[in-house]
Design a protein that fits this description.
Number of strands of chain B: 4
Bound molecules: flavin mononucleotide, iron/sulfur cluster, FE2/S2 (inorganic) cluster
Helix content of chain C: 40-55%
Largest sheet of chain C: 5 strands, mixed
Structural class of chain C: alpha/beta
Number of domains of chain B: 2
Strand content of chain C: 5-15%
Largest interface: B-C, 52 and 66 residues
Largest sheet of chain B: 4 strands, mixed
CATH topology of the largest domain in chain B: Glutaredoxin
Chains: A alpha/beta, B alpha+beta, C alpha/beta
CATH topology of the largest domain in chain C: Rossmann fold
CATH architecture of the largest domain in chain C: 3-Layer(aba) Sandwich
Distance between the termini of chain C: 27 Å
Number of domains of chain C: 3
Shape of chain C: globular
Order of helices and strands of chain C: HHHHEHHEHEHEHHEEEHEEEHEHHHHHH
Strand content of chain B: 5-15%
Oligomer: heterotrimer
CATH superfamily of the largest domain in chain B: Glutaredoxin
Order of helices and strands of chain B: HHHHEHHEEEH
CATH architecture of the largest domain in chain B: 3-Layer(aba) Sandwich
CATH class of the largest domain in chain C: Alpha Beta
Shape of chain B: flat
Number of helices of chain B: 7
Number of strands of chain C: 11
Distance between the termini of chain B: 36 Å
Strand order of the largest sheet of chain C: 6-5-11-8-9
Strand order of the largest sheet of chain B: 2-1-3-4
Radius of gyration of chain C: 22 Å
Number of helices of chain C: 18
């Protein structure tokens, strides 16, 4: 749009036509006060705080509703304006309880700040204030009516932003009140957006209430550990007896792609971290019972046993199950440890999407994956399968708000009437299980049409939908785990004919994509390089067992015939989540690293207390392939990061950990000794470090050392370190990934999490539990995972 | 839930008058209230369903309009204006008189469920002040005596109806006794 | 049914058919009914607009904006349907004229809406009648039905090949819904919260379509202008204030009633001659000249002509035509309190200054009137009102502030007489407390 130039307080301001005056002011550092205005929500003009003087207008005007025009002359600050704002505050405060010292918002309250700026604290009124008791609307939402200043932000974010519309305004005049249906309780998505957006302490959260004051917390920006969307969250932590306790999660600084969005899990379900059942010391099975032991004892035992099995029965007698919630560095390290130290390819993780097929289909295609940010700006989106509202709340938010704010066209194809159909230009319901046929049909297989037509659609409709889609540009195609293998490649074939089309393959859990990218597969190395082929990893890691290993079900089978002598489970609960018989591994030596005595940990011979992703550093890759930095926020004494534990076990097995973790001075220190079999390789790492202006890392427990290696070796991960460290998400590409390997469809089982569940973690979140109980929804049966 | 045929006919006629369904909401609520006596949860759910609204939306609308109520009211809703034109011509005395006579205050309902008293804003009878409405009927140029006559008439009407109901009841009784016997 | 009055100074234009049975469509036709719209059907849209412009007709709803001008703002081309909206929400205290129009001459309103429709290119109109006027909505619904039956409404009206529909719509008790954009919200089935302007209704109104909204009296005047001509109509009143006005005379006058007088009629004469003066040997204390929102005039200020410009010059407004007369036994503080109680009750609550300001003013006035006032209250009330003025989201805030400022400024002495625990000099003992307990 053309630019418009105006003058504000004597400053020239140029902004695109259509810009609101309040936003134009911001661009030159003029902050016009506001309560009801909130970017990307509908305009209200209700609080009258943003009144400014516009030349030729008789009255003061609201900057939040005025669209700039050429030559406009604006005064944003004058005695008249100050007085207007001051009086608004005086009128508000007349009815405000002024209990700032005990209010949760105290210290970060917009009303408090504004009162301070305009000196309106002195009350002009003698009348009694209107009082009403605080109400609890849901396990997470509390409402203190007298504090409410009726800015309607909560109503709008719930309706316009969340498409939930659970809040409204009851009554009128001074009796107006924000309320849910029937005024007493909420049945909603419990996202807490309304609480977060409340400028005062009227809406407060069950999780944070009265726990602490903003200035008593330390804030750490990191990534949510729950679903695969990778929301940025700022965790408020404070000192506790057991270490550092997380007391609050939000993203007020809007630092990530998610802006200020978080779903209930990101906002409240960090509480698993402080669950009293956290393991805080190693346990060793003695006389059939898991008994506390020292770390030293545990590592020695594990090292001895693993080495014994490897040397006696060969590496193929050892299984390794990695995690979808550990960092990329840990997954990479585990993959490398298995191959180099345990000498096994029996490596797997809980797969929830067919990333190898995805990588294979996109091989050689540049810019073919969409970032989470793209989903908010794409002119058109095709969604096949999945229910993002439940399983990918951020993705759903991005889609909804793209449709609302940018009029993006949304095409939804699903076997269920999922909620996003409400935003859809076109919604096609298909028989359950026919998603793959949709891919085939779109790719041109007309015969597939029969399988996707049902009472609600005709062949003509499908043909015309396909034509419409073919006519789109820059289409984002997102699909769930229903689409795998050859169907997936059909879908990519179809999409690749559309100019600028990009894909999103939806997987569950916070770092499933990382687990896949880092090669937690029996037949794939990091970057989807087949174990049997040749790749940089083959050269750099040295001798790698050549035959493909066993996948998870293969390992279970091997255990049943006594061929699996040892199993190493890192941050995974296959027995609890994948319906594996709890006696399956009773003849194996089982080591489990986890936070809790999960269904898997109880059968372990050694259980090691692990730190979770809020308690360590590293990187995560979200389902779109956006790489982000994870930072340590909380801390529970007695736990260790998986990274350190893997290194310690390698060490206990007598392995030179420098070969595992590239540390030390490289060129100047141990020329060629520290990594891999072939001499001269250390140079490559050192050369790469130098070229990227990075220092060699010094500690074997420093995940950044592995990040260096990942960035150097894993295709698509060579993103800007600077941007990554600055807290920005960096999109990785699959264009240069390896060719992948075809997998059996049964090897993939979606988590089937809902908005209120989160695999095993969810069981230990009081916030999620209480919400489920209040919604009277039974937790999803420990379903296929 | 069941409304009268008259209501249904009106509803069916009204909805197509507008390009959006919900436009019919406000007048429909008033008609429903006239029939049921108040806007019960059941009425709210029913109308929300018919007009593609959430119950919350319907409640938000109801609570905005002063004539709409979610609580039962007396058979005769006595609305006395005390606004400026009525004020200067004795509107308050009329209100106080009614309050004394009925033994209830603003928005109070007599124990027999016959009268609800309400102080209301200007009802558009300023040149004939003081004025009041009993349900939808206007009563103007009021004096306390005139007000008494209005209330008496209401009572008489209620009694007559009661009588009728009683006779129907006793008829029903006799009939049922007969069929039993 | 409200009783009719008359006075020789009246110029009967809008009230011409009152009491003549014109609710009956055949009777209406005998009384020149539906001639104006047929004439308009033969004119082009601009000609109609010009006629109304030249007549000097100004909105009777309160603001007094030129009707012809308003119509000319509606874009000729529009992707969305255009609408004409009749504002029959009449709720401004002191105003009871639209009620008479609906009661005695509903077809004139229908005709006015139709002519408005022809002028702006709308094909349908809505007549919004406040919920309390149930009997009038029954009259109006019948009138509309009769007009359809005669082929005056619906398809091919009067064989002109053009279509026009009119629908009735009812409110449910809310003064704020009389505000034009809040009325559109209400008609769309929502809470009566006004809309952000711009865009103005003439461009984006009902269901997003360009909409003309006029008061019932304004629209009922239009057919007479079409038949009598702009020049005739304009000449009834002073320049730029064409025609007549229905003045709702109420309060302490001997002969209250709704009188149709020429624009610019003397206020003094209206009170003392038309209204028969102040009864019971009392004298005049103040007049509210145009409904409760307009600043009062003192007994010394009534030597003015009742047209928009003259009343504005006197520091008040002609408003909605509600002339409320107060004799010397009326307490201004009490009157101010009752006025504020109204605005506090009717504030939609959307914006801070009106929602909170009216509540503080009401609370302060209650305490003040019942003897709990302190000196700084008087200044505070003025401070509050002045800080509401011009800063609210819609004019209701101004409507609450303006009269209050006038009461405090013009009758400061009376406020001071209530100070220091002194009981209200005008109140019978105990009445104030009793009312307080009774009131909403
Ligand atoms: C709070 C408020 C209440 C109003 N109430 C009415 C009303 O009841 N009837 C009316 O005709 N205009 C009312 N108006 C004025 C309308 O907004 C609008 O100006 C009018 O209907 C336009 O018609 P006119 O140009 O014919 O006067 C009100 C305005 C405000 C601010
Ligand atoms: S928690 Fe979320 S869904 Fe629930 S009311 Fe608040 S904004 Fe709406
Ligand atoms: S509860 Fe908070 S966000 Fe909602 S209207 Fe009140 S102050 Fe605004
Ligand atoms: S959408 Fe996913 S990443 Fe974001 S807060 Fe929710 S669970 Fe966490
Ligand atoms: S001034 Fe504000 S609160 Fe008052 S009626 Fe208008 S919008 Fe509502
Ligand atoms: S920020 Fe502009 S009115 Fe509230
Ligand atoms: S003031 Fe009572 S009817 Fe108008």
């Amino acid at each position: 749009m053309a630019d418009v130039t105006l003058t504000v307080d004597g400053k020239k301001v140029t902004a695109p036509a259509g810009t609101l005056l309040i936003e134009a002011c911001k661009t030159v550092g003029i902050e016009v006060p506001s309560f009801c205005y909130y970017p990307n929500l509908s305009l209200q003009g209700a609080c009258r705080m943003c009144l400014v003087k516009i030349e030729k207008m008789p009255k003061l005007q609201t900057a939040c509703t005025t669209v700039i025009s050429e030559g406009m002359i604006v005064t944003s600050d004058s005695e008249e304006i100050k007085q207007a704002r001051k009086s608004m505050l005086e009128m508000l405060l007349g009815n405000h309880p002024l209990d700032c010292p005990v209010c949760d918002a105290g210290g970060e309250c917009e009303l408090q700040d504004m009162t301070f700026s305009y000196g309106a604290a002195e009350s002009k009124f003698m009348e009694a204030k209107n009082h009403k008791d605080e109400q609890q609307w849901s396990p997470v939402v509390f409402f203190d009516r007298p504090r409410c200043i009726l800015c309607y932000r909560c109503v709008r974010v719930c309706g316009e932003g969340m498409d939930v519309w659970a809040l409204g305004v009851q009554n009128r005049g001074v009796s107006s009140i924000i309320a849910p249906n029937k005024e007493d309780h909420l049945e909603c998505e419990e996202c807490g957006m309304c609480i977060d957006i409340c400028p005062v302490g009227a809406l407060t959260s069950g999780a944070y209430r009265y726990k602490t004051r903003p200035w008593e917390m330390k804030h750490v920006g990191t990534i949510c550990t729950h679903c695969g969307d990778g929301c940025k969250t700022t965790l408020g932590v404070r000192r506790a007896d057991t270490g550092m306790e997380i007391v609050r999660g939000d993203n007020r600084d809007k630092s990530g792609t998610n802006g200020d969005f978080l779903c209930i899990k990101g906002r409240y379900a960090f509480d698993f971290a402080n669950h009293e059942e956290r393991l805080t010391q190693p346990l060793i099975r003695k006389e059939g019972k898991l008994t506390p032991a020292t770390w030293e004892e545990a590592f020695q035992l594990i090292g001895k046993k693993f080495a014994e099995v490897r040397d006696r029965d060969g590496g193929s007698a050892i299984g390794v199950i990695g995690s979808t919630r550990t960092t990329n560095e840990e997954s990479y390290l585990l993959s490398k440890f298995a191959r180099m130290v345990l000498k096994t390819n029996n490596v797997d993780h809980h797969r929830t999407a067919d990333f190898p097929a995805f990588a294979a289909a996109l091989r050689g295609k540049a810019d073919a994956t969409a970032s989470m940010a793209d989903v908010f700006t794409a002119p058109a989106i095709l969604l096949i399968g999945n229910d993002p509202t439940e399983q990918h709340p951020l993705l759903a938010w991005q889609i909804r708000n793209n449709v609302r704010l940018h009029r993006s066209r949304l095409y939804v194809i699903n076997s269920q009437a999922i909620k996003l159909r409400r935003q859809a230009t076109n919604f096609m319901q298909i028989p359950a299980g026919a998603e793959g046929k949709v891919a085939a049909f779109l790719a041109g297989d007309d015969a597939a049409a029969d399988a996707i037509i049902n009472s609600s659609s005709t062949k003509d409709q499908w043909n015309s939908l396909r034509d419409t889609l073919r006519g789109e540009q820059n289409l984002v195609i997102a699909f769930g785990s229903e689409i795998l293998g050859s169907d997936l490649s059909s879908l990519v074939t179809f999409g690749s004919a559309i100019a600028g089309a990009k894909f999103v393959c939806l997987a569950d859990y916070a770092n499933s994509r990382g687990a896949a990218d880092m090669g937690l597969y029996p037949d794939l190395l990091p970057g989807y390089h087949p174990i049997s082929g040749s790749s940089e990893f083959h050269t750099e890691w040295g001798e790698i067992p050549q035959a493909a290993g066993l996948d998870l079900s293969g390992m279970v089978e091997a255990a049943s015939t006594n061929k699996l002598k040892a199993l190493y489970v890192v941050g995974s609960n296959p027995i609890g989540r994948l319906k594996i018989d709890s006696f399956a591994f009773s003849n194996s030596f089982v080591v489990v690293q986890d936070m809790f005595l999960t269904e898997t940990a109880v059968v372990a011979d050694v259980a090691l207390p692990a730190a979770n992703a809020y308690e360590k550093s590293g990187t995560f890759t979200n389902t779109c392939g956006d790489l982000q930095l994870v930072k340590k926020a909380g801390e529970v004494t007695g736990t260790k990061a998986d990274f350190e534990m893997i290194v310690r076990i390698a060490d206990a097995m007598g392995f030179d950990v420098r070969k595992l973790v590239p540390i030390g001075g490289g060129t100047h220190a141990d020329m060629g000794q520290s990594r891999g079999a072939q001499s001269g390789e250390a140079d490559r790492h050192a050369v790469w470090l130098e070229a990227h202006g990075l220092e060699p890392k010094l500690s074997p427990f420093d995940p950044m050392a592995i990040l260096d290696e990942i960035q150097r070796l894993v295709p698509g991960y060579d993103v800007s370190r600077m941007n990554l460290l600055a807290g920005n998400s960096q999109h990785t590409s699959l264009a240069k990934a390896g060719p992948g390997v075809a997998h059996r469809p049964e090897s993939i089982s979606p988590a089937n999490d809902t908005l209120f569940s989160s695999g095993t973690l969810g069981h230990y979140s009081r916030a999620l539990k209480s919400v489920m109980e209040s919604h009277e929804v039974k937790p999803a049966e420990v379903a296929a995972d | 839930m069941k409304f009268s045929e008259e209501f249904e006919a009106r509803f069916a006629e009204m909805v197509p008058h507008y390009p959006t369904k919900r436009s019919a909401l406000v007048p429909t609520l008033l008609y429903a209230q006239d029939e049921v006596g108040f806007l019960s949860d059941e009425v709210i759910a029913e109308l929300a369903g018919r007009l593609d609204l959430t119950e919350l939306e319907v409640r938000n609308v109801i609570s905005y309009y002063s004539m709409l109520t979610t609580k039962p009211r007396g058979k005769f809703n006595l609305q006395v204006c005390t606004n400026i034109s009525c004020l200067v011509r004795g509107g308050e005395e009329i209100l106080q008189h009614c309050a004394k006579k009925l033994g209830v205050g603003h928005k109070g309902t007599t124990p027999d469920g016959l009268f609800t008293l309400e102080e209301v804003e200007c009802i558009g009878a300023c040149s004939w002040a003081p004025a009041a409405q009993v349900n939808y009927d206007f009563h103007e140029n009021l004096t306390t005596e005139k007000m008494d006559r209005v209330l008496d008439k209401c009572l008489a009407q209620a009694q007559e109806q009661l009588q009728r109901i009683k006779s129907v009841d006793s008829l029903a009784d006799t009939l049922s006794q007969r069929s039993e016997g | 049914m409200a009783s009719l009055v008359s006075h020789p100074d009246e110029v009967k234009v809008v009230t011409r058919r009152f009491g003549l049975g014109a609710t009956n469509i055949d009777r209406y036709l005998e009384l020149d009914g539906y001639k104006a719209v047929q004439k308009a059907l033969g004119m082009d849209a601009d000609a109609i607009i010009n006629e109304v412009k030249n007549s000097g007709l100004r909105g009777r709803g309160g603001a007094g904006f030129s009707t012809g001008m308003k119509w000319s703002f509606v874009p000729k081309q529009s992707a969305k349907p255009k609408y004409v909206l009749c504002n029959g929400d009449e709720s401004e205290p002191g105003t009871c004229k639209d009620r008479l129009i609906f009661e005695h001459d509903p077809h004139a309103v229908i005709e006015g809406v139709m002519i408005g429709g022809l002028a702006v290119g709308a094909r349908s109109g809505y007549i919004y009648i406040r919920g309390e006027y149930r009997y009038l909505s029954i009259i109006m619904q019948k009138a509309i039905r009769d007009a359809y039956a005669k082929g005056f409404l619906g398809k091919n009206i009067f064989g002109s090949g053009r279509d026009f529909d009119i629908y009735w719509h009812g409110g449910a008790g809310a003064y704020e819904v009389g505000e034009e954009s809040a009325l559109m919200e209400s008609l769309e089935g929502k809470r009566g919260i006004p809309r952000i302007r711009p865009p103005f209704p003439a461009v984006v109104g009902l269901w997003g379509g360009p909409t003309v909204i006029n008061n019932a009296e304004t629209l009922a005047s239009v057919p007479h202008i079409m038949l009598g001509g702009a020049e005739w109509y304009a000449k009834i009143g002073p320049p730029k204030n064409g025609g007549t006005r229905l003045f709702c005379l109420s309060g302490n006058v001997a002969k209250p009633g709704v009188y149709e007088l020429p624009m610019g009629y003397s206020l003094k004469k209206m009170i003392y001659e038309v209204g028969g003066g102040i009864p019971n040997g009392r004298s005049l204390k103040a007049v509210v000249p145009g409904g409760s929102s307009t600043p009062c005039l003192t007994a010394d200020e009534i030597d003015i002509n009742m047209d928009f410009d003259s009343v504005a010059k006197a520091g008040s407004m002609l408003g909605s035509g509600g002339v409320v007369v107060l004799d010397d036994q009326q307490c201004i503080v009490k009157f101010a309190l009752r006025t504020m109680k109204f605005y506090q009750h009717e504030s939609c609550g959307w914006c801070i200054p009106c929602r909170e300001g009216t509540d503080w003013l009401k609370k302060t006035l209650i305490r003040f009137h019942s003897g709990g006032g302190v000196k700084k209250d008087i200044d505070n009330m003025q401070y509050l009102s002045e800080n509401m003025l011009g800063r609210t989201f819609c004019p209701l805030g101004d409507a609450a502030a303006m009269p209050t400022i006038a009461f405090v400024k013009k009758f400061r002495k009376e406020f001071e007489d209530h100070l220091d625990g002194r009981p209200c000099p005008y109140e019978k003992a105990g009445v104030a407390e009793e009312m307080e307990a009774l009131s909403h």
